[in-house]
Design goal:
By secondary structure, the protein is of the alpha/beta class. The chain folds into two domains: 5-232 and 435-457, Aldehyde Dehydrogenase, Chain A, domain 1 (3-Layer(aba) Sandwich); 236-424, Aldehyde Dehydrogenase, Chain A, domain 2, CATH 3.40.309. Helices cover 41% and strands 21% of the residues. The strands form five sheets. A seven-stranded mixed sheet has the order 12-13-14-11-10-16-17, sandwiched between helices. The longest helix has 25 residues, at 80-104. The chain is globular. It starts with 5 loop residues before the first strand and ends with a strand. The chain binds NADP nicotinamide-adenine-dinucleotide phosphate (NAP). Residues 130-134, 139, 157-160, 189-190, 193, 208-210, 213, 216-217, 231-234, 265, 362, 364, 390, 431, 436 line the site of NADP nicotinamide-adenine-dinucleotide phosphate (NAP).
Length: 458
């Protein structure tokens, strides 16, 4: 089996910033065996000890946040300050599960014909996590914190463009005092994920990434009856109704679209604006998108940096071109700047309609698709006319109406009123339709990788 090195390239400069050995078949098998051996010991430790180590991990993350943010910036181009915030959020999720995990996993007594009967939550074993590069620490920790508090051990197959992040994450567990192989990095290519899923020691898998990768992992896992959680792409619709506070709406829309250079699964992607406020919204939206500063991600003045890889930038540009060919208007950006690096400017497409790539596909970059709707009903129909169902938001001063639309009418895993969709350890996170299944975070997340065991005693 191939042992090609995994090479990290700075997308701002196209310079190589790291080269890591991948592992061969024997080493891969050894790591799976060791992670399973570790599971037997780790799962038997008292919950308090597991939680204390998770608190130590939060301390390690906080004490090293600048080092970690620097690796993130150099490997995938995130603005340094946003990298710091990402690490702080990882520390938060570790503390959240250290403090709340024991309560979430308490036995649930149930009255039956037994003298005692209850539900107990037992860890499953070794869980494989296949993770993306866009939030290279956060995506990993939001899986790892609940899974390890519950008593599982983890194997990480990280995206190939963030090998330094993957190694740093494994090291952070060791530095916090976790036993060897409680959380183990597997430097392998995606073509070898199948080998991991085929191994009976690996009990379940979670994947955050594209639909294509998700269906491949689900297929391989399904063949062996292994549970999966899939956190896939999105094309979140933001509805701007006639009575919206436009200043608030535009600020939230621009922030959500440009966050992480537009490479967020829950970034606002389709802006559906009702006729009455269309021109006012567009004027303000274009002004603020134009004012956003693309620049060196190590510079604190930059609002967003380059995209994470050259191929992703080129793919995004093709989606813009295909949308324009299909009749969309290019109101801002849409041109690749000369010189090195995976740069792509803030771009606004209007007159976007179903059937165009900007409507039907996920735009993973700083490109906004603006859609005009005749009325509220049409705005809701257009929002739901998507294969994706990750997040959605509605802007209106009528909170009852906003709540009704969010709760009852929009088809997505998270629906927000007058605010941008964001993840929070206290709230469940995940999608419907091709955005995936299963939930991360909150008490739902910690129950994804446990055996919900019935105990019945006469
Ligand atoms: P990706 O290409 O699917 O990669 C994600 C991970 O899957 C990487 O580790 C990748 O490894 C691996 N992978 C790729 N193809 C695979 C296959 N056939 N079998 C097994 N593993 C495979 O996605 P990405 O471009 O890195 O990430 C962007 C996507 O992730 C977007 O669609 C975004 O919306 C989605 N996302 C979703 C969430 C969520 O919570 N719902 C959060 C963040 C991102 P290699 O790098 O080695 O190919």
């Amino acid at each position: 089996m191939s042992k090609d090195p995994i090479i990290a390239v700075n997308p701002a400069t196209e310079e190589e910033v790291g080269r890591y050995d991948s592992i061969g078949r024997e080493e891969l098998i050894r790591k799976m065996e060791q992670t399973d051996i570790c599971f037997r010991e780790w799962s038997q430790r008292p919950m308090d000890e597991r939680c204390q180590l998770m608190k130590n991990l939060a301390d390690v993350l906080e004490s090293r946040k600048e080092d970690y943010a620097q690796i993130i910036t150099s490997e995938m181009g995130k603005v340094f300050q946003a990298g710091i915030s990402e690490i702080e959020k990882c520390a938060w999720v570790c503390r959240y599960y250290a403090e709340n995990g024991p309560r979430f996993l308490e036995d649930e007594k149930i009255q039956t014909d037994a003298s005692t009967s209850y539900v107990s939550f037992q860890p499953l074993g070794v869980i494989l996590a296949v993770m993306p590069w866009n939030f290279p620490f956060w995506q990993v920790f939001r899986f790892a914190a609940p899974a390890l508090v519950a008593g599982n051990t983890g194997l990480l197959k990280h995206a190939s463009n963030v090998p330094g992040c993957a190694q740093a994450i494994e090291n952070s567990f060791l530095e916090a005092g976790f036993p060897n192989n409680a959380f183990c990095n597997l430097p392998i290519s995606s073509s070898r994920v199948k080998e991991v899923l085929e191994n009976p020691l690996v009990r379940a898998a979670t994947l955050t990434g594209s639909e294509k990768a998700g269906s491949s992992v689900a297929l391989e896992s399904g063949k062996r009856i292994k549970k999966t959680v899939l956190e896939l792409g999105g094309s979140d619709a933001y509805l701007i109704l006639a009575d919206a506070d436009l200043e608030l709406a535009v600020n939230q829309c621009v922030k959500s679209r440009l966050l992480n250079a537009g490479q967020s699964c829950i970034g606002a992607k389709r802006f559906i604006v009702v006729e009455e406020v269309y021109h006012a919204f567009m004027a303000l939206f274009l002004e603020k998108m134009r004012a956003a500063k693309m620049g060196d991600p190590t510079d604190s003045d930059s609002d967003f940096g380059p995209l994470a890889r050259m191929d992703l930038r080129d793919e995004l540009h093709k989606q813009v071109e295909r949308s324009v060919d299909a009749g969309a208007n290019l109101d801002l950006g849409g041109r690749i700047p000369p010189g090195k690096g995976a740069w792509y400017p803030a771009t606004v497409l209007s007159n976007v309609k179903p059937g165009m790539p900007a409507f039907d596909e996920e735009l993973f970059g700083p490109v906004a698709a603006v859609i005009r709707a005749k009325n509220e009903k049409e705005a809701i129909d257009l929002a739901n006319k998507s294969d994706f169902g990750l997040g959605a938001a509605v802007f209106t001063k009528d909170l009852n109406k906003g709540e009704d639309i969010a709760r009852n009418k929009l088809q997505a895993g998270s629906c927000f009123v007058n605010g941008l969709v964001k993840s929070d350890p206290r709230l469940p996170f995940g999608g419907i339709k091709v955005s995936g299944y299963g939930r991360e975070l909150s008490h739902y997340g910690i129950k994804e990788f446990v055996n919900i065991k019935t105990v019945w005693i006469r």
